[in-house]
Each structure stands twice: as structure tokens, then as C-alpha cells.
Amino acid sequence: MTLQFDPYIQQVLAAGAGPRGSSRFAAWHPGDVYGLRLILNDGLSQLAALPSTPSVQTSAFTAQHADGTSVDLRWYRKDESAGGPAVVFFHGGARIAGSVDLYDPLVRMLVDWAGVPFLSVEYRLAPEAGGAAAVHDGLLAVEWLIDHHETLDIDPARIAVMGDSAGGGIAAGVAVLARDTGIELARQILIYPMLDDRTVSPDVELSPAAAMFSYEFNRTAWESLLDDVPRDSADHLLAAPARTPDLRGVAPAYIEVGELDIFRDEDVRYAQQLWRAGVATDLHVRSGYPHAFDVLLLGSPSAVRHRDERVRVLQSF
């Protein structure tokens, strides 16, 4: 029996959800990174339809690299959360698209569900800033949060990094860089993470199901990110953490990926790499689900189950 979409997912995709629902999709061609940015941002703009969360408050901050480069940060908190864990969050968008603003409704929802404060990072995008720039922005955000833990009333020993898709790959890279710089993170929460620039050759079983993120999209994004980055350099390994030769000592991991996601195999392999390195790793492969399945499922009967699982993870460190 061939791999098949979950019936609810199939229905939502048939109604025009995902990149193919963008008016720009038909004119797009592989290699067009700016066209892909517009298509992905069109899809992410649909997050604005999520329910409002008046109990979640936000504040704007800025962190600065030693060279003067600024990184904007947005702090999310529910009134009752104090003195506990916090999450440094990286949005999705294939490393070339997305923003803190586009992800604002989703981050608000996660904070509202779990009661755990989030710091959302406006990391630099490719092609304007390629290589490991976003990972360094991520570590800067972690360091900033540690430095400001008293003001923000969080426990610096209970900081996790989290992201979905491209953001999951950045979170994984930050976990490696944090280990290398002596920062002990409590958790890395990787939601269908984009980890490996070698996932560019179509899989005969997965290609027909790549409705939310295709191999052509992936190749275009990675080529944009790694243009002029020397192969197997430190920047390359941080940008594509699946290439990291030694994962010993990184934070315990939680990984989720759909069975019909082109990132499935690289994510499963990454979990295996973590296990071989002695890193506690909780891996979940979701049957019948493609990339970005959690967003597609928000109106479904399964939504409560997935919400409860995310809350469990966010309250587990």
C-alpha cells in the first residue's frame, strides 16, 4: 500500500492550502529565490486567521553582535508565568522567508497554550545573509536572554531552543554552537526541522506528496543559503547541522516530522545521530502528515491531541 495523506489533510490541501494556493506558484521556477520568498510568505500570512490571544503580552528588544549588527527580538509572556522556563524561538520559511510578524499569531498561541514565555528571533535571511549567520543570531538571542534573566524573571538553567522547518534547523545549529561555547541548554525542540542540504534528489514515494514543501523549493533555498560557503567549513556544518560529525553534549532533543515530509529521512537520521552521541532524543513520525502538518490540522478533530503534545513538551524542562 502506498503512503497516503491523512483524510483531513487531504481535504485541506484540496481546498487550496499551502504554496500551491499562492497566485504566484504557477509562474515560479527552480532557482528563483525571491519568487519563492513571496510564495512562502503568502502561505505564512494565513497564520493571521488564528484565534486572538489577549492574555499574551509582548515587548520588543534588540540584541547586538560585536560588529554592530542588530537582531530584533520579541518577548511573549502570559501574566501568570514567572520564574520558570523560557523558549528561544526561530520561525520557519526555508531560511529565505518568514518573519517574527508573520509568526506572531502562532507564537502567541503556543505561549497561551503552555504558559511558557517565548523570545522570538528576527534572524537574518538568505541570500542577504547566508551561511551560519542565522545560527549566530540565534546564539546571540540565547546569550541576551541569559543576561536579562532577572529582569524577565525566568530561570536561566531552563532555556530551550525551538523552531519549525528552517527554524528547527537553526535551533539545532544553535544547540551545537551553545555546546561549543559552554552554554547548557535545557532542550532543543525541533519541529520538522530543515537540517541537511543533501535532501535535494526527489524520492519516488515522497515527491507526489510534497504538497507543502517540495524538493525544488528545498534545493533553491539551500543553494541560496550556502552560496560561496566552503564545503564542510564551520559555517557549512552549523547551517546544515546534520553534517555535524560529533553531537555529544548537545541539549536533549524532541523531534517531530510527518511521514510524508521530504525532511522525514534526514530528521530520522538526525535522531539516530543524537542517540549514537548519547543524547536523549524523543522522536515522533506522524503517519499520513506532510510538512507543516500542525498548521493544517488546527481546525481538525486531531488539533486537541497535537496541542496537548506540544504543551507537554513545552512544560517538560
UniProtKB/TrEMBL annotation:
Q: Which Pfam families match?
A: Abhydrolase_3 (PF07859)
Species, as recorded? Microbacterium halimionae
Annotated ranges, domain Alpha/beta hydrolase fold-3: 87-293
Query: Does the keyword GTP-binding belong to this entry?
Result: no
The name of this protein is Acetyl esterase/lipase
Keyword flag Cell membrane: no
Keywords annotated in UniProt: Hydrolase
A Gene Ontology MF term for this entry? Answer: hydrolase activity
SUPFAM superfamilies the UniProt entry points to: alpha/beta-Hydrolases
